[in-house]
Give the backbone structure.
Amino acid sequence: MKTREQILEFISKQKVAFVASVDEEGFPNMKAMFVPRKIEGNSFYFSTNTSSMRTQQFLKNPKASLYFYHKGRFKYEGIMLVGTMEVLQDEAVKREIWCVGDTMYYRQGVTDPDYCVLRFTAVRGRHYCDLKSESFEMA
């Protein structure tokens, strides 16, 4: 069983995060995103567009899931987290995770109304490696 620190270390080394939301009909919707800009405790922070379909789904239903994986030459490892996603418009949080190249996506800068932060809070997860799966709590 991986420790919390090992789980977070694994996640921090990945290049892509798969983020799942729930649509109006109750179906899961999956999207690849850049990895979290910040990880603090059980919270993972992403930047995205306020106008995006995913953001609108999270405003209606905060249930969410994240998936991270690494496929090596002989080994596949994956971690799934489930929890809730909040849409944050707080300017201090937005400034904290802002990166220089973000003006490519948000022309008005950190105050662009189409720029928001998603904060995922994990409650539990599942780890897969070497043909074994284990569930774990994030508390």
